[in-house]
Amino acid sequence: MSTLWGIILIDCMFNIQLFKMIRYIIDIVKRFYYRFCTNPTEYARFLGVKIGSDVLCGYHHWSSEPYLITIGSNCQLTDCKIHTHGGVILFERKYPILICLEKW
Q1: How big, in percent rounded to 5, are the helix, strand and coil portions of the chain?
Q2: Single pTM value for the model
Q3: In sequence order, what E strands does the chain have?
């Protein structure tokens, strides 16, 4: 009987790993689609940037925390860079134990 439970447990673990792998592949495909097959404004919304109406974005490059960015209505962004918390990565490399950031 214990062998049967072992087989069931291994089967469940395999199914969980398979589900995670399929979800990871779907996320990669979605990111690729929004990055290369839609306009930059839709890609920004996909990443979590809050964008108003009638906004024109002319690039696909966003910072490491795009959910912190809010852009109002009737704006045009061309050839500009928006940085959010740019120094955190350097601080994290020097003091890795002190960093505990989470998206709220």
Answers
A1: 50, 10, 40
A2: 0.61
A3: 50-51, 56-57, 70-71, 76-77
